[in-house]
Design goal:
This protein is an all-alpha fold. The chain is built from 5 helices and 2 strands. It has a domain of 99 residues.
Amino acid sequence: MASPLRSILAVAGLGLLLSSPLAGAGNLLPEIPKAKARVSATQGCVEPTEVMRHNHMKFLLHHRKEALREGVRTKKYSLMECINCHVPDPDSPQAVHYGNPKHFCSSCHTYAAVRIDCFECHRDTPLPSSRKSTSASGVTAPVTLASGVDAHALKKASSPAEEN
């Protein structure tokens, strides 16, 4: 008598499993938001997609070392340029912050169970379009820290006054 009951439970369990949301999911990979711009007609990012997926942290760390220790500031592997291209403007209805699964960085880091601390200091969205101004050199100003503080004003206020 235990055998028919066991068969019924097995069939019922199989039915529940097949009707679960995971059964038809097909693709459990993260949904990665599209970039706002392309480097060229053939290439989306500053490096091919697969190279960026595997090496973006190496590029960011190398850029950080060059910028902070050697004073060489370029846009190519800059975190702010990544954010400007891949994350919607805060004025946009699609704007999200890091931690939201729809944020460009969060989409993969959550999937890979990788914790990053970039946004404890850096902005997780581009500057609002109302605050952007681009100089003739192509540099976007002002630079705003994650806390909302204008970095140029902070630097000016903390540096000794120049004497004439």
